[in-house]
């Protein structure tokens, strides 16, 4: 799933995305030694961080014996990064969540507790309850990665807008389909 | 003495007339049209940042575009992304059908009454401007159908549409789809439209919400 081979070596990338938000707490959490070691121990080779409007720059690493770490602020090719990722760690925005689920990628959603009206927790927790993803906080991310069991996740079946369209058509007197 | 009692009677009479008209509009608003029709309806689509626009474009993608035309897209003045996405969508449609985008779709921005973090004092003034702007747009467009799914910019537009109904200027059908991000509680926009009976049809994407708001219709996840 997303694994690619580079120079005969298997590349397994963890892609971290915060969308257009500022979520330094998440970037800091993935940038800790414990989290990076846990990811490396689980067989991931690359960590790519999209840090959005955040100001905390993670430490890059290009060495041989450890997780390769790179970061950037914004990119028009988020979709490509998601496609090539083996694991996605995302903020709780519904756009990022459903784009990742649609690609069938394992996903850890990290809820930003600093947001004022944080209704996003509702969506992440509901989808976690239905076992489509893991839901964490910045301070619990390490434990979540430790206990990660990807076989536990149930693939998300993409939703359907047709029922709404049918009801709107019926209401307006249009043919229903 | 005589004069003042006539005035009071006139006031009471006009208030009850307006009230009964409001009740009449609320009563008929949630009811589907009885006659089958095939002529297209002009449609106002309110877009919002984040996941809102993606959900709305998802709904649009399954509607018959020749019946929902022309289409007017509105987004907040501070939101450049949403109209861009709508434009891309319309261009792709036009490429397929060979129609001219300018003739079936219009894209416009609307002032927001209050930006995140703005003080309440200055927001009195900005709300006034935003309301007048919304009124101007609604007078110009007079859409037959309004589709919205959450951003606060839909409130002034829907309130004006409701007042137009009461005044007999234009009868428009308002469809509100609560965002998929709302699982347990409605958004403020959703709550206002639901409580004030302003949406002709109110859709929610999670069964929990339908249990709390029985007039809503559960339609499953759109995404």
TrEMBL record, chain A:
<dbReference type="InterPro" id="IPR052474">
    <property type="entry name" value="UDP-GlcNAc_transferase"/>
</dbReference>
<keyword id="KW-0808">Transferase</keyword>
<dbReference type="Pfam" id="PF04101">
    <property type="entry name" value="Glyco_tran_28_C"/>
</dbReference>
<dbReference type="GO" id="GO:0006488">
    <property type="term" value="P:dolichol-linked oligosaccharide biosynthetic process"/>
</dbReference>
<dbReference type="GO" id="GO:0043541">
    <property type="term" value="C:UDP-N-acetylglucosamine transferase complex"/>
</dbReference>
<feature type="domain" description="Glycosyl transferase family 28 C-terminal">
    <location>
        <begin position="13"/>
        <end position="167"/>
    </location>
</feature>
<protein>
    <submittedName>
        <fullName>UDP-N-acetylglucosamine transferase subunit ALG13 homolog</fullName>
    </submittedName>
</protein>
<dbReference type="InterPro" id="IPR007235">
    <property type="entry name" value="Glyco_trans_28_C"/>
</dbReference>
<dbReference type="GO" id="GO:0016758">
    <property type="term" value="F:hexosyltransferase activity"/>
</dbReference>
From TrEMBL, chain B:
<dbReference type="GO" id="GO:0004577">
    <property type="term" value="F:N-acetylglucosaminyldiphosphodolichol N-acetylglucosaminyltransferase activity"/>
</dbReference>
<keyword id="KW-0812">Transmembrane</keyword>
<comment type="similarity">
    <text>Belongs to the ALG14 family.</text>
</comment>
<dbReference type="InterPro" id="IPR013969">
    <property type="entry name" value="Oligosacch_biosynth_Alg14"/>
</dbReference>
<feature type="transmembrane region" description="Helical">
    <location>
        <begin position="6"/>
        <end position="27"/>
    </location>
</feature>
<keyword id="KW-1133">Transmembrane helix</keyword>
<dbReference type="Pfam" id="PF08660">
    <property type="entry name" value="Alg14"/>
</dbReference>
<dbReference type="GO" id="GO:0043541">
    <property type="term" value="C:UDP-N-acetylglucosamine transferase complex"/>
</dbReference>
<protein>
    <recommendedName>
        <fullName>UDP-N-acetylglucosamine transferase subunit ALG14</fullName>
    </recommendedName>
</protein>
<keyword id="KW-0256">Endoplasmic reticulum</keyword>
<dbReference type="GO" id="GO:0006488">
    <property type="term" value="P:dolichol-linked oligosaccharide biosynthetic process"/>
</dbReference>
<feature type="transmembrane region" description="Helical">
    <location>
        <begin position="120"/>
        <end position="138"/>
    </location>
</feature>
<keyword id="KW-0472">Membrane</keyword>
<feature type="transmembrane region" description="Helical">
    <location>
        <begin position="144"/>
        <end position="164"/>
    </location>
</feature>
